[in-house]
Design goal:
14-stranded antiparallel beta sheet, 7% helix, 214 residues, two-stranded antiparallel ribbon
């Protein structure tokens, strides 16, 4: 799946997400690999080359290992986390962390969301999610907001609308300032993600996809 990031009227970046079936420690896993980078003028002003990876169980969709390789301007960080869901532990370079047994990382949480049967939900229902990000527990509860049509470059997509709770403060003004639209079909691929920030609006729109199951 390939995406273009818009900051207001400007095309500021792109993202490419791939999924592979592999083996890790002798066990089958899905491996999701996301590359996000700035383009054009934004790349000259503040270069971003971020890689997010997640390895997760094909049956439970729970993460086995996650990787963040961040290169943003002069800031660089590499973080690798492994998970033990039986013990309720996450292991990162900073040490051992107690986590809920249903913990997820941000990359593989997307695949869990895509497995949900939304027809069983009512408007306003909350999907609870516990995620582990940057060595901290990060609640990422999501509200189901029904269905909408989204138009991207002349193509209209029937979508499921989801609004995660975000924390107002330095980046967001209200708890409703992030919205995710996923396709209302068996694939449930992300079509658009929108962030309403203090400094302006960012949209991430799909531009191409291949290898879908349905």
């Amino acid at each position: 799946m390939e995406y273009i990031l818009h900051f207001g009227p400007i095309n500021a970046g792109k993202g490419i997400n791939n999924l592979y079936l592999e083996e890790l420690d002798g066990k089958p896993v899905y491996h999701t690999h996301l590359v996000a980078q700035t383009t054009g003028l934004a790349d000259k002003l503040y270069k971003v080359r971020d890689i997010y990876e997640g390895y997760f169980d094909p049956e439970t969709l729970l993460p086995v290992k996650s990787i963040r390789d961040i290169n943003e301007g002069k800031y660089k960080k590499y973080d690798e986390v492994t998970y033990d869901h039986t013990l309720g532990k996450a292991y990162s370079p900073s040490g051992e962390h107690d986590v809920p047994k249903d913990i997820r990382d941000m990359t593989t949480a997307l695949y869990y969301i895509r497995s949900i049967h939304f027809d069983t939900l009512e408007y306003g229902d909350i999907i609870p999610l516990n995620t582990f990000f940057d060595d901290e527990l990060f609640p990422f509860d999501i509200r189901y907001r029904g269905k909408e049509k989204v138009k991207i470059k002349g193509t209209v997509y029937n979508c499921i609308k989801l609004v995660p709770f975000v924390e107002p403060g330095r980046i967001f003004e209200t708890e409703d300032d992030m919205t995710i639209w996923i396709s209302d079909d068996p694939n449930k691929i992300p079509i658009r993600v929108k962030f309403d920030l203090v400094v302006g609006s960012i949209k991430c729109d799909i531009v191409s996809y291949s290898g879908l199951k349905y």
